[in-house]
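Sequence in, structure out. Go.
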Amino acid sequence: MTDRSLPNAPSAALLHRLGALLGPSGMLTAEADVAPYCTDWRALYRGRAAAVLRPADSAALAAVVAMCAEAGVAMVPQGGNTSMVGGATPDESGREVVICLSRMNRIRRIDPVDQTMEVEAGVTLKAAQDAARAAGMLLPLSISSEGSAQIGGVLATNAGGNNTVRYGNARELVLGLEAVLPDGGVFHGLRRLRKDNTGYALRHLFVGAEGTLGFITAAILQLQPQPRAVEAALCAVADADAALALFAAFRDQDPALIQAFEYMSGAGMELVTRLVPGASLPLAEPAPAYVLVELATPRRDADLRAALEAVLGGAFEAGTVSDAVIAESETQRLALWKLREEHAEAQRRAGASVKNDVSVPVSKVPALIERASAACAALIPGIRPAPFGHIGDGNIHFNLVQPEGMDPAAFLAQDHAIMDAVAAVVRDLDGSFSAEHGVGRLKPYMMPAWRGGAELETMRRIKRAIDPAGLMNPDAIFPPA
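Output:
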């Protein structure tokens, strides 16, 4: 808990009032109905909740929050429940309520002139992408869980994803925001302005705050022109140094063409092709590492294939790339992306794994992979490093799979030791222990060492000022005071 005593359990009278407000489809209290909302996607946390509240609009949510705040009941926001760090899971006390925003799922407006969309928190990222595409535009944010992840959670965690190298994280796409505050008040910030220099940019407090300052209910998101041409290639490289050399070659040609640039280790790719049905390597033989590069442009006259082939031709001559395949159709492009997107599933099938979502300066990614692999191998002989991710922006998912034959529970019992071994390398390389997944319930213990002193105290002051009772997602981000 953060700077507060144990919250109150909701009384029968409060639950009756909430039920009357929300209606029969707006509140769940039966244990079987509540249970799916009390376990995170990775099954790291299993909590209990007094109720799941499902308001259908901002006014109902504001009334719910006001009632809970007055009663001293802690609230845990939940969208698609795809958190990798337990950030949307209630604790074990049974005193908290989960507030799920999935019924707030309207796309309110798309403006083709402003190139913006106004979307509610419960809309899935995939639905928002599809709506933008139908309007002839692009919502460039793309993550593996986009079919179930919802806009509210995506913004609350400042999600990054595959296209960050070109378009930035979620924060860069948010022009305006609406949020319900911890006392039930509503922050009305749904502005479509590119320039608005009128004091603090309060929307940025809520983006990345993981629901600790309030509930994001709607947002104005920037859209981009829909690409007229897309080209993708899977390249075999010797190591992360070669991957960065290839990245530099594409960037030198035209940085505006790079839509995604993803790194995969040979070990991780072997798990994907062996354990995931329908995944096969389209190259002549396995390689130590791989790069998936995707170029895109909205220009009518661009010869994107020629641009891709020119860089790859130079990379072959320089010895940077040993083999490559270019997608010849949309089906083949999606097959290449399947090799990247199925890494987490392949690792799950291979046994227990410990996930590290870390970032370092782009130039230091090779050192990260080499040094963290060695540190983890020294800690647990036979451990299988399977790093992959967004090498173009310095974000690597440094995941580690249990040694073959090791008891999964015994391996997971050392998860903090493994995370700390990786984190020590990351910190020495001036990186971050959380690049895009957030802090959640999994990593608050790291905050004092990484963000301590004036930085963490400033965060605490903001939290106390906006949520003095500490009722908003109380176990996320902050370690016990």
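Check: The domain at 229-343 is CATH 3.30.70.2190 (Alpha-Beta Plaits). DSSP finds 18 helices and 21 strands in the chain.
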